[in-house]
């Protein structure tokens, strides 16, 4: 983000400042309420076009200065001396002057980028030590290392740019620096060629009209730079490349640069004695002034409506994202190109607008830099994963107030300490020291909050059955796994639970954030790709890795197919252990985000249509003819009615779709079909928030959920399952394992360890508790099989 200097600020007019506010606060709303303001992420498109415009204006001014200086030398009547006769040729002078200009230009911009980046990193470190746990601080180390190198955009290449990642639910306060990294990369790569292009003068055009070089410059910008970058953006191999790589964003910067070239044409050098009389300047009519201002504010208002209206009034255009991005960038470029110059000529800036623009021109950029860290730390302070409407407005006020205060502090510092060479050298030494400190922190090994001595003192109580006593073992993955398995039995729970201290509970809950942390590496079986072939996915498809397939051989005769979304991938090991190998094969297929009960599911998750997923399941059933089918999945809210809508199940289209699918599936399954009931859905990431609240010694009861609320939220799903006509179907409810006395527990009450890794997925401890349900299902199948024999 480039600040608006006092020398060039009046040239831009109020257009840039207003568009910056629209773009920045659109991003703020998106990061606070990502699902409600899904289009707000495109505010970064406005900022990229504005950045290209500001850079273009400054480069045009640099080229104008050289032309004016050359013109002054040509108009001078001083006789040349011997020293002047031996000077370098004109092209060498121009090259030396260009190198000097671009060097000073780089020094000024890099000083701003590096200093703002370091201040943000140091501030994030202070907030992290106050609010983050060790695992979040370890992740912050990696983010700092990428931010110091201005490579955050490349760090996110292998990450899905989803609402959950970009939103503030993830405790990563520096992820928004990907935009700053892209801007700096554009600045370093394209400033010299753009400066050369703006200085373009040739003898060929000396006797041509002055707009001939102007046309050449615009054509070169468009054909040589804008078009290739736009094609790369459209043909990018992945969404992360299209969002974060410089080549995919260059066309937006250059669109702003073209707007600057059109709005601010190069001035024709005139002799010093030539002046333009005030009477020769035509003043615009009052009607044109009013019309231009009304048109400008109307277009800007329409641009803001796209971002600021919530999704209930203006749904996100994710399926038309490319078209919306092009439209937003084009409208921004049009406003910059046409109205920047016109508004300045029609209505000179008033004293108030000039004061606001000169003294608050950097406020939107400071607000952009501070908004994500402040929102992340505010959420960590409240120990919530999502902000309510009231909390969100408080966060916006906090961001605005802090940005205003920081802006005033910088104005005061620049007023008290004007830039001088001696102070600049001290500033450079301070930057080097801060960079060295942040770099050493990022690469330093070990835990931050706990010293190494305290780390070695952490121990896990394990009951040794051979010696009939409790032993303390170092805190490792195998020892914690053994401890979790033992506390699931009543014999050991009361004896081992009191032996855990606060630090050990925090550490174990941090480990429970991943559902697969405690799984053994040598899982029996092998991966498969049969389902991928059934739905005709190409082998080089970038989404194929999202589909999880595993086949496991057993000692019995049953054929078991387990199908679902990510919940099936979490629970299949407990299903396999419940059958104790009494199957011929057990095949697992997990397609994230899809519910295998609806053929009319219109959603596309990770590039896979859910309707095609269900069709692929039917094909696999027809091919394998399993004895048992487990459907384990999360019941999403897509097929939930609105709050005041009443559904007649006799005419319910969704129930009809479920019934139609089950009629097909029953014919393809030999014995039983087990369908999971609606799973528990909590309001926050349980394991992370539980560890944080234990560390901060805050109440934990708010993490649990009333059983009646769970039933009310999923009433329509339970009713549809109850009306489903399926002789081979049995419904099992894992929520019953965690709900007693009217409360659905998110964690084990005695040990304060999480049953859930996030809002709905079972942790390893939760899987151990749910294993009892699968054992009952396996026992019922085995008993019926014995009766038939």
From TrEMBL:
Pfam family, one: SGNH
Alphabetical list of InterPro entries matching this protein: Acyltransferase_3, SGNH
Membrane spanning stretches: 12-33, 39-60, 110-133, 175-198, 210-233, 245-264, 294-317, 323-343, 355-381, 393-417, 424-444
Domain SGNH intervals: 554-774
Keywords for this protein: Membrane, Transmembrane, Transmembrane helix
UniProt cross-references to PANTHER family, sorted A to Z: ACETYLTRANSFERASE, ACYL_TRANSF_3 DOMAIN-CONTAINING PROTEIN
This protein's name: SGNH domain-containing protein
């Amino acid at each position: 983000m480039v600040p608006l200097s006092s020398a060039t600020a009046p040239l831009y007019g109020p257009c840039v400042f207003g568009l910056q506010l629209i773009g920045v606060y659109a991003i703020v709303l998106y990061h606070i309420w990502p699902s409600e303001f899904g289009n707000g992420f495109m505010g970064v498109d406005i900022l990229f076009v504005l950045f290209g415009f500001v850079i273009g204006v400054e480069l045009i001014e640099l080229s104008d200065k050289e032309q004016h200086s050359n013109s002054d030398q040509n108009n001078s009547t001083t006789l040349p001396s011997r020293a002047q006769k031996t000077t370098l040729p004109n092209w060498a002078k121009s090259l030396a002057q260009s190198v000097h200009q671009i060097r000073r230009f780089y020094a000024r911009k890099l000083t701003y980028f590096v200093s703002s980046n370091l201040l943000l990193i140091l501030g994030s470190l202070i907030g992290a030590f106050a609010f983050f746990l060790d695992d979040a601080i370890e992740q912050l180390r990696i983010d700092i290392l990428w931010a110091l190198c201005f490579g955050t955009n490349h760090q996110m290449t292998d990450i899905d740019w989803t609402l959950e990642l970009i939103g503030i639910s993830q405790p990563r306060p520096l992820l928004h620096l990907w935009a700053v990294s892209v801007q700096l990369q554009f600045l370093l790569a394209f400033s010299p060629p753009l400066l050369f292009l703006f200085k373009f003068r040739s003898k060929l055009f000396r006797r041509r009209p002055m707009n001939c070089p102007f046309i050449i410059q615009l054509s070169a910008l468009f054909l040589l730079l804008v078009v290739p970058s736009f094609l790369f953006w459209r043909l990018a191999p992945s969404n992360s490349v299209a969002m974060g790589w410089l080549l995919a964003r260059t066309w937006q910067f250059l669109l702003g640069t073209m707007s600057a070239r059109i709005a601010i044409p190069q001035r024709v050098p005139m002799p010093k004695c030539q002046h333009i009389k005030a009477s020769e300047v035509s003043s615009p009519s009052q009607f044109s002034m009013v019309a231009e201002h009304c048109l400008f504010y109307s277009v800007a208002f329409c641009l803001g409506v796209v971002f600021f209206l919530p999704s209930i009034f203006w749904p996100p255009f994710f399926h038309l994202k490319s078209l919306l991005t092009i439209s937003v960038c084009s409208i921004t470029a049009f406003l910059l190109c046409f109205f920047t110059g016109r508004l300045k000529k029609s209505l000179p800036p008033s004293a108030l607008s000039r004061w606001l623009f000169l003294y608050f021109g950097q406020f939107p950029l400071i607000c952009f830099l501070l908004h994500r860290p402040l929102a992340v730390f505010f959420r960590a302070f409240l120990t919530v994963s999502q902000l309510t409407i009231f909390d969100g407005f408080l966060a916006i006020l906090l961001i605005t107030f802090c940005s205003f205060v920081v802006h005033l502090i910088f104005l005061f510092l620049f007023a008290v300490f004007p830039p001088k060479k001696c102070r600049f050298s001290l500033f450079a030494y301070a930057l080097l020291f801060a960079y060295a400190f942040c770099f050493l922190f990022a690469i330093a090994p070990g835990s931050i909050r706990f010293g190494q001595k305290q780390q070695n003192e952490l121990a896990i109580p394990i009951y040794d059955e051979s010696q009939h006593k409790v032993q303390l073992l170092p805190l490792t993955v195998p020892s914690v796994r053994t401890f979790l398995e033992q506390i699931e039995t009543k014999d050991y729970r009361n004896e081992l639970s009191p032996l855990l201290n606060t630090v050990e509970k925090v550490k174990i809950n941090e480990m429970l954030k991943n559902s697969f942390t405690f799984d053994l590496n040598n899982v029996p079986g092998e991966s498969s790709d049969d389902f991928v072939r059934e739905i005709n996915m190409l082998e080089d498809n970038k989404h194929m890795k999202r589909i999880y397939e595993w086949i496991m051989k057993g000692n019995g005769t049953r054929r078991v197919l387990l199908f679902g979304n990510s919940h099936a991938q979490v629970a299949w090991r407990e299903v396999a252990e419940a059958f104790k190998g009494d199957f011929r094969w057990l095949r697992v297929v997990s397609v994230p985000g899809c519910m295998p009960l609806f053929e009319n599911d219109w959603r596309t998750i990770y590039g896979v249509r859910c309707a095609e997923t269900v069709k692929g399941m039917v094909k696999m059933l027809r091919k394998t003819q399993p004895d048992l089918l487990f459907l384990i999945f999360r019941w999403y809210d897509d097929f939930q009615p609105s709050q005041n809508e009443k559904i007649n199940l006799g005419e319910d289209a969704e129930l009809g779709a479920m019934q139609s699918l089950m009629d097909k599936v029953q014919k393809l399954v030999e014995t039983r079909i087990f369908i999971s009931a609606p799973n528990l859905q909590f309001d926050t990431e349980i394991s992370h928030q539980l560890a944080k609240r234990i560390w901060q010694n805050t109440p934990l009861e708010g993490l649990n959920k009333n059983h009646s609320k769970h039933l009310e939220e999923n009433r329509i799903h339970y009713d549809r399952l109850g009306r489903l006509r399926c002789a081979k179907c049995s419904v099992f409810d894992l929520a019953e394992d965690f709900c007693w006395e009217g409360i659905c527990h998110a964690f084990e009450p005695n040990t304060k360890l999480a049953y859930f890794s996030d809002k709905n997925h079972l942790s390893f401890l939760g899987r151990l508790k749910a294993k009892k349900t699968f054992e009952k299902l396996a026992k019922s199948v085995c008993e019926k099989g014995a009766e038939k024999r």
